[in-house]
Design brief:
The protein is mostly helical. It is built from three helices and no strands.
């Protein structure tokens, strides 16, 4: 798979910390999600932003743009993950 490098298990802590930081940032900016529809819309927006990057042909990009694309993909996945966890919390689904 192009651009994929397996992540050693210890790196999951770093990723989880980034997701946690994104949750804190998003809540401070936007407050809690008010409904299932709100959660769906926010998650879909983040996922669509990732999908837009996926559709870009990396073979048509120069090195710097290709690297920036991968960084942006990572950022969108961090944001998507954060919004999914936030939805679980805000919708009271922790113990569902």
């Amino acid at each position: 798979m192009e651009g994929y490098t397996p992540v050693p298990c210890q790196d999951f802590r770093k990723i989880c910390e980034e997701v946690r930081s994104e949750i804190v940032r998003a809540v401070s900016l936007h407050g809690s999600m008010k409904s299932q529809h709100d959660a769906y819309a926010v998650i879909l927006e983040e996922l669509d932003e990732f999908w837009d990057l996926v559709k870009i042909n990396p073979k048509k990009l120069n090195y710097d743009d290709a690297k920036k694309r991968l960084q942006n993909m990572r950022n969108e996945l961090i944001q998507t993950s954060a919004m999914c966890i936030r939805a679980i919390h805000d919708l009271g689904l922790e113990d569902a």
